[in-house]
Every structure is written in structure tokens, then in C-alpha cells.
Amino acid sequence: MDTLVRTDFRARIYEWLTQKMVYHSLFWLTLLLLLTLLESVQDGFLFSLSNQIVNVFFYAIIVYFNLLYLIPHYLTRKKFLTYGVLLVLFAIIVTPLKLIVFYFKFSDQPKLQADLIEDENLHFLFTFLIVGASTIVKIIKDWAKHLREMQELETQTMQSELRFLKSQINPHFLFNTLNNLYALTLKKSDQAPEIVIKLSEMMRYMLYECNEKRVPLSKEVNYIRNYLDLEQLRQGKNVNINFEVEGHVSDQEIAPLMFIPFLENSFKHGLSNHITTGFVNIKLSVKEQCVDFNIENSKPETPPIRDPNRRSGGIGLVNIHRRLNLLYPNNYDLNIEDKPNAYAVHLKIKLE
What we know:
The chain is of the alpha+beta class. The protein has helices at 2-17, 20-43, 45-75, 80-105, 110-118, 120-186, 192-208, 217-235, 260-270, 316-327, and strands spanning 215-216, 239-246, 253-254, 278-286, 290-298, 332-338, 342-350.
């Protein structure tokens, strides 16, 4: 309870400090205090405080004129020469006004009045440095804000695209699975209840866990096993399906459904009704920081003739390329080999 109270208190303090009026006021008060302390060594605290109040007042005028008018109307519109001229001109106007106030303030101190006239150029230079510093701070702040907005936009775009890609993968696989189950029910297979259980596990995984950015590798492996068991029952004895896991599957995490498009294509396009016997060999090599996924499937010697009026399917491979680029940029290696009698895929992913 105390921890929650402290966290809430810190959050309120941070929210208060990040309000523009608050941190601007704190900046000017800090500057006022520093300038006063530097001068009060020889002139006395109260006398120095009154002098620096005048200084800070004129500094604030030129700084906010710069921030609220000159920068928006000239600098951001790339009118650099006009901006520079106006900035110097305003500093030239403000500096004598400040010196006039000081001249009347030092009416009973002729030496200080003489010092004002003698150090006029120094006062102008210091005023110009203050307003120039405000320009630099404004540019850095706007650049940081722009960079933050670009990163947020990139993150939102990536998340939206990933959601779109998953929405394509999941129904695509579901339709294939339901077709498999339908084929078994037509045969009145006694194994249909087992398929329903496996399908239930797969649907639970897809609906409740695949929305996460990463899932345990062990659950992804179990999903693949269920998928292959279902395919083996549908394909029968004419197809030899081998799935080997090499290495120790522990707490590694991976993006969900990364391997399913390759499995779908191996059965849909490789082991079709154009081939009487065939194979699908899958090997998953698991290491601490990476996984190697290898799949090879047989294919017919003569490619089936496509119907030109039929829209080609198989969006999975397109999606897998895009998902890999989004989720594992520069951390994956994908090789696809089209052999005379087989189709092979090797995917290596470096895990985070």
C-alpha cells in the first residue's frame, strides 16, 4: 500500500513539473537566483536581487518574443536571413531599454551609470546569447518531439500491420483445418473426436495466446504437433510425416504462428491430389539464442495446370516475409529452395 502511495505521489509530482507554466517559472527563478548569487558577493544580496529582477524581466521579454513570434513565423518557415536580422534588431532595441531602466535605478550612483554606458556592448552580447540559447533549446526540443512522434507512429504502424497480417494468417489456417476435419467426418473416421480435441487446443491457442507479441516456444511446438497429427490422419499412410525437435525447449519465446505458413504450403501445394505418395520432413533445432526451422516436402514432377480465371491463394509466404521484417529485422535468415522433386525451406531466427 505504501509503495502504491509513493508511486502515485511521484506521478503527481512529475505531472506537475512537466506543465509548461511550472517548468518555465522554475527556470526563470533558478536563473534569477544564480545571477543574484554571482553578483551579491560584492554588491549585497538585496541590491543584486533587484538588479537581476530587471535583467530577467528583459531576458524573458526577448526570449518569449523569439519563441512565440520570430521562430514560428520565420525560422520554421525557413526564412533564416529575415529571422536573423529581426533577432539582432530586437536585441538592439531591448538592450538600451534595459539600460535606461538601470540608469534611473542608479540615479544616486554616478559610477554605476558610467559603467552602464561603457559596458553597453557587453550587455547587448549577453542578451543576444540568452535569446540565441533559447533558439537552440527550442530546436533541440522540437527535434526530440518530432523524433518521438515518428517513433510512436512507426510503432503504431507496425502494430496495425502485424494485426492485419495475423488476421490473414489465422482464418487462412482455420479454413484449411476445417476442411481436413470435414474430410474425416465424411469417412466416418473413429479418430474424429481426437481431431476435435486437437482442433480445440489449436483454436484456444489462436484465440487467446496468439495476440501476444511473443509466445513460449513450447506452445508453438505443441501447436505444430497438433497440426501435423491432424494432417497425418487426413493424409493417411501414403504420406510420411516426420517432425524432429533437436535441443532443449525451455523458456525461449517466439512470435506466434511463424512456421505455420510453411506447413500449410507443404501440404496444400506439395502433397496434393497430383501425387500418390510423399513426405514432409521437419526439423526444429533449438538453441539458447536462436532456432533453426527446416522443412522439406515432396512435390509432383509435373506442376499442376493453373486455372487462369482462378485467383491464386497462399498469402502465407507473403505474410511471413513481412512479419519477419517487422518482428526480426536483421535477425533472421530465410532460404527457399525449389528442387526437382522437393521443396525446401530453411529459416533461422535469432531470439531476443
